[in-house]
Design goal:
59% of the residues lie in helices and 2% in strands. It is built from 16 helices and two strands. It has two domains: 8-98, Alpha-helical ferredoxin (Fumarate Reductase Iron-sulfur Protein, Chain B, domain 2); 104-377, no CATH class. The protein binds iron/sulfur cluster (SF4) (2 copies). One iron/sulfur cluster binds next to helix 5 and helix 6. One iron/sulfur cluster is lined by residues 35, 37-38, 44-45, 69-75, 85-86, 89.
Length: 389
C-alpha cells in the first residue's frame, strides 16, 4: 500500500510561483511524448504534473528530471488542456532554490514579490554602514570623474572578497544539500511513477569523469539545441552564458591591471583588449537577454510566461548593465554630480546580483550542472547523437 500525504501549501506555492495552471492537467501524457529531452524510461514531465497536483513535495524536490528540462515549451504548446507543464517545471525549479537555500530565511525572500522591499533594503543598509567606516568614503575634487577618489578602491575590494566568500560558502552548503537529496553521494535513487523506489544502474565512470561530461554538454548547450518550437533559446542562452564568461574574464583582466601592472584608476581606452572583451561580453549578454524577454512577452505566448524569479534576475541584470554604461558615459562627460550617485546605485544592484546568486535564478546554473552529472552517471541523459545511434 502506498500512503500519499499531499502538501497542499506546496501546491499553492507552486501555483503562485508560475505553475498556476497545473490543476488543468488530465494526465494524457502528450507532454512526455513530445518532450525532446525526456528519456523513454520514466519520462517527464507528465509524472511531475501528477506529483505536483498531489502535492508530493519531497518527490519533486529531489527529482533531477526537473533540471533536464530547458523550458523550450514544446510540451506547453501541445498540451490539450493548457496546463503549461513547461512553466510548472520552472516553478518547481524556482522552489528548489528556496528549499535547499542556506540560510533558508533568505531563500524565503525570493518566493514572493511581497518580500522585495526587504531584498532591496538589505544592500542599502549594508552600503550605508560600509560608507560610515572611516577612510571608505572620500571627497573627490576636480572636474574629472575618478571613482577611486569617491570610494576607496581597497575597501571595495575587501568588501567584494567578503561577499564572494559568503556566496561560495552558502552556495556549497546549498548544493551539497541538493546533491544529497537526489541521492548522488550514496548511489543514485530514482523513484518510479508508482511510488516504488529502485536503484538505478551506474553506467560510467567516477565524479570527475561525469563532471567533465556534464561540463562539455553545458559549454556546448547540447540539450538546448534540441528544442523544436523555441529554437531561439539555444542561441539566446548561448549569448547570455558566454557574455557572462567574457565579462568575468574582463573583470579578472582589470584586477590584473591594478595588481600586476600598478594601474591606479581603470579608465581604459576603447581599444584596450580587456575593454574589448568586456564590451563583446556585454553585447552578447544584453542581446541574449533582450531576445529572451522579447520572445517571452510577444503576443503568441509560445515561449512561456516569465515567473517573478525570472523577472527579478532579468531586471537586476538589465539595471546593472544600464547603470554601468551610464557610469562610463558620465565619466567621459565629466558629470561628477551624476556619476558618483550612479556608482552607489550600481553597487547596490551588483550586490543583489552576486550576493543573492545562490537564492536567485542564477543558482540554476549549479543545480542544473549537478542534475546533469547525476543523469550522465545513470545513463538517463545522453546526447542527441548518442541517442540516435
Ligand atoms: S500537462 Fe497537458 S499534455 Fe501533459 S499530461 Fe497533463 S494534460 Fe496531458
Ligand atoms: S519545456 Fe521542453 S524540455 Fe521542458 S518538459 Fe517541456 S518539452 Fe520538455
Amino acid at each position: 500500500m502506498v500512503r500519499i500525504e499531499p502538501d497542499i501549501r506546496f501546491v499553492k506555492d507552486l501555483m503562485k510561483m508560475g505553475g498556476g495552471d497545473l490543476k488543468k492537467c488530465f494526465q494524457c501524457a502528450t507532454c512526455s511524448v513530445i518532450c525532446p529531452q525526456s528519456p523513454d524510461e520514466n519520462p517527464f514531465p507528465r509524472k511531475e504534473m501528477i506529483w505536483a497536483q498531489w502535492g508530493l513535495k519531497d518527490k519533486l524536490l529531489r527529482d533531477p528530471d526537473i533540471y533536464l528540462c530547458h523550458q523550450c515549451n514544446d510540451c506547453s504548446i501541445n498540451c490539450p488542456r493548457g496546463a503549461k507543464p513547461g512553466e510548472v517545471l520552472n516553478a518547481i525549479r524556482n522552489y528548489t532554490f528556496y528549499e535547499y537555500s542556506t540560510p533558508k530565511f533568505i531563500g524565503k525572500l525570493f518566493t514572493s514579490p511581497a518580500y522585495f522591499p526587504i531584498l532591496i533594503a538589505i544592500p542599502i543598509i549594508l552600503l550605508y554602514a560600509f560608507l560610515q567606516i572611516p577612510g571608505v568614503l572620500l571627497s573627490p575634487e576636480g572636474e574629472h570623474v575618478v571613482y577611486g577618489n569617491f570610494i576607496n578602491h581597497l575597501a571595495i575590494e575587501v568588501a567584494g572578497m567578503l561577499v564572494g566568500a559568503y556566496v561560495i560558502v552558502v552556495a556549497l552548503l546549498s548544493f551539497y544539500k541538493y546533491w544529497k537529496a537526489v541521492g548522488m553521494s550514496s548511489g543514485p535513487v530514482f523513484e518510479v511513477e508508482r511510488g516504488v523506489e529502485g536503484k538505478t544502474t551506474m553506467v560510467s565512470g567516477g565524479f570527475w569523469y561525469e563532471f567533465w561530461n556534464a561540463l562539455k554538454d553545458i559549454l556546448r548547450h547540447t540539450k538546448f539545441s534540441e528544442c523544436a518550437e523555441n529554437r531561439y533559446r539555444y542561441l539566446a542562452h548561448l549569448g547570455v552564458f558566454y557574455g557572462f564568461i567574457l565579462l568575468g574574464i574582463s573583470t579578472l583582466g582589470a584586477v590584473a591591471y591594478m595588481y600586476l601592472f600598478g594601474v591606479k584608476e581603470l579608465a581604459l581606452p576603447l581599444y584596450d583588449p580587456v575593454k574589448i572583451l568586456g564590451n563583446i561580453g556585454f553585447l552578447l549578454l544584453f542581446g541574449g537577454m533582450s531576445w529572451i524577454v522579447y520572445r517571452r512577452l510577444s503576443a503568441s505566448g509560445t515561449a512561456g510566461k516569465p515567473s517573478y524569479q525570472d523577472w527579478f534576475f532579468i531586471t537586476d541584470l538589465y539595471l546593472v548593465a544600464i547603470t554601468g554604461i551610464l557610469m562610463e558615459a558620465s565619466r567621459l562627460a565629466g558629470a561628477t554630480d551624476i556619476a558618483y550617485p550612479l556608482y552607489l546605485v550600481h553597487l547596490v544592484l551588483v550586490f543583489m546580483l552576486l550576493a543573492y546568486a545562490p537564492y536567485s535564478k542564477f543558482a540554476h546554473l549549479m543545480y542544473r550542472g549537478l542534475a546533469y552529472m547525476w543523469a550522465k552517471k545513470t545513463g538517463r541523459l545522453v546526447g542527441a547523437k548518442e541517442a540516435s545511434e
